[in-house]
Amino acid sequence: MRYLCGVVFYGLCSFWAVFPATLFAQSETPSVEDDGKLRIICFGAHPDDAEYKSGGAAALWAKQGHHVKLVAVTNGDIGHWAISGGALAKRRTAESAEVAKRLGVTSQVLDIHDGELMPTLENRKTITRIIREWNADIVIAHRPWDYHPDHRYVGILVQDAAFMVTVPFFCPDVPALKKNPVFLYSSDRFQKPYPFVADIAVAIDEVFDKKVEALTALESQTFEGGALGSAETMAAAPPASQPEARLAWLKERWARRAGGEANTFREALIRWYGEERGMQVKYAEAFELCEYGRRPNNAELRQLFPFFPPPDK
To answer: What residues contact 290, with CB distance under 8 A and at least 6 apart?
Structure first.
């Protein structure tokens, strides 16, 4: 009897320890019906990561009527140099939602403290449920090698879900996927244990302005400097009373960043767009195939990235 009570008590404690994040994950995702469109879900550690790394591709998918969801696995509540806690989490959640609205996609922010994400079983279950509920064809996340522990653990959690999303008796409260999604990593510059490989590069020139305009909504990060900013950082950016100057200021910075991606991954752009167009691309986002999940061939990848031209073009 004492053992049974202990088991029940431990189970209840474990449940309530993870209940807020799990509830948030489930309540934010409506049931979906198959309308023949692709379903893409992009995980970032904080309310800006998925927007930064996949916002252009997300806009391209959305432009063709496909369904994209951007998920922040932590709430970003320490991601500012001057404010923190619940007020910051609410602010960053609202910023992320506005970016998604401008891109034509969906967003979700989990209620897990910034800087405290761990690759636990319960978090693995949460990620598995979110992927299943979205009925994902493509899942994008950080690689599990990164300077930030939250980034690393998002990569690990998504990796760990890559097989479990198809296992019926793991999280049986949400039906398992009948087909494993394609899992991708977003780009980074880290070299160990091995550098990022651009299996896929997406030209985002036609949505570059849309992406930058959307990112202006991330005011706490783009104009105030985030966790490592300062009063001087805020003073260096145009004030909120000058929205056109702010947009131009941010566009200049993102032209360097997305332009650097295009130049770094030029070979991949040529592979997917052909020599002539590939050489002309100014702005890009790049992705690497994860060895877990479904292993698509080039023809399947062109179906998943329907904005790629036919191979003979």
So the answer is: 159, 162, 183, 184, 185
pLDDT computed for residue 313 by the predictor: 55
Residue (of 192, 210, 194) closest to 258 by Cα position: 210
Q: Is a pLDDT exceeding 50 seen at residue 110?
A: yes
Which amino acid is located at 187 in the chain? S
Rounded to whole angstroms, how far apart are CA atoms 313 and 309?
A: 6
- Mean pLDDT for all residues in the chain: 91
Contact 17, 164 (CB under 8 A): no
Global model pTM greater than 0.85: yes
> Using CA atoms, how far apart are residues 285 and 49, in angstroms rounded to an integer?
13
Q: For the residues 71-96, what does the mean pLDDT come to? A: 98
Please report the domains of the chain, with CATH numbers, ordered by start residue: 37-203+285-304 (3.40.50.10320)
